[in-house]
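Our consortium's second objective concerns turning raw sequence data into structural hypotheses that experimental partners can test. To show how far this objective has progressed, the report includes one record in full. It was chosen at random from the queue rather than selected for favorable results. The single chain below, 489 residues long, was entered without modification.
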Amino acid sequence: MKPTLKFAPRFLMKSILMKSAFVKSVSVKNILANALVSIGMVAGVVALTTSISAQAQTANSLQDLYQQINKEVTAEATHNTEREQRFRAAAGEQQAMLAEVQGKLAAQEKLRAEMQLVFDANETQLAELSTQLDKRTGNLGELFGVFRQMAGDTQQMLFDSVISVEHPERIALLESLAETKEVPTITQMQQLWSLMLQEISLSGSVSRFETTVIKPDGEAYTAPVTRVGTFNIVADDKYLNYVADSQQLVELARQPGGAIRATAADLSEASGDASVGFALDPSRGALLGLLVQSPSFMERVDQGQEVGYAIIALGIIGLLVVLERMIKLGRVSALMKKQLKDMDHAANDNPLGRMMLAYYENKHLKDLDVLSKKLDEVIFKDLAELRKGLSTIKVLAAIAPLMGLLGTVTGMIGTFQAITLFGAGDPKLMAGGISQALVTTVQGLVVAIPLLLSSNMLSSRAQQLSKVIGEQASGMIAEKAVDIAQSKA
């Protein structure tokens, strides 16, 4: 056992030295790899030595051990030779690949230099183009802002225009132009320009077409309507209101006065190039809306309430008295004129004729005072008939403004009561009392002024007739006095 253990280290050292000599022939590049191989071989030999020792212990034959080690060393040498050959072949291929890669790298370096020049040129050009782009973008941004603003203003104008009833398709087009978020194209700008020109052109024309009209109670019907520019639109004798939110035509709940509606009817019935008068609202419905909201005559009368009705009744009574007096005095004046043309034949149908009859009946009296009193009796009676009702008219003319003042006070009392109960925040609560106060004042003046003028006119007429009668009576008395004087002489 001991000789075997001694032999193994010697053989191991010999193998290591042989391996070291073999490693020296390898290039410097393979030193590390060979060292690693040697270490592995050492470990293998150690393991092998241990194995051989075990085998020597069992076989107890140095010859077998030598042959086995020699065989393994030969196999290891062959394996290392093959590995070295493969490594040398791989090293050649790596050198070729390295040369190829270095060539490509040089080509890429050259290309990089060329691309750097191109990149620098592009950077310079890009800076110039960026400056130009910023300038043009600023101009386009200003154009876009102006276009959006114009489109928005035009959209609102056309949306509220009554022409949109006849051309509803332009609303959708204008909405798309107003909501665009990109720089407008030439086509879009031309479309906006075309819509503005259409509005200008149609605003000066009168057009007739059929469409749906909504009644105040919600009932819809189709009827021909007439559009007058952008101002008004009528159907038959009814004015229509254009509701922009629903794009519908609605009849006004309260139509204007009959004279204004008559012009609308004339326009609806006109044909061809006929020229007709039309009550145009230049405010596009604002004035018409205020006009239809103003109270009618009967509504004004109703605002006067009880005091107003009393003033109206007073005025009617005064008017009847005035008419009766005017007819009476006119008839008396006509009969007296007829009598003046025929003084030889006295008639009993007029004051002058009755005075003449009284004169002829008492002509035989020699006392002028008695004769004068006889005539005065007849004259006073007729004059009282002529002045009949004039004092009543004066009283009514004086009472009417006083009743108007009464209505004013009553209305103001109602106004202050409303203020006391509800405050002064809502003017509508005070409108009733104020309306009564003002309307009754107007009614009192409207009644008093004509009655006062009529009273003055009738008094003048009665005084004129009285003057004619008095002149004729004085003339007859004077003529009688001359006859008496002549008879005495």
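The partners drew two points from this record. The first strand starts at residue 206 and ends at 214. The beta strands are 206-214, 220-228, 232-235, 238-243, 248-251. Both points have been shared with the crystallography group to help prioritize constructs.
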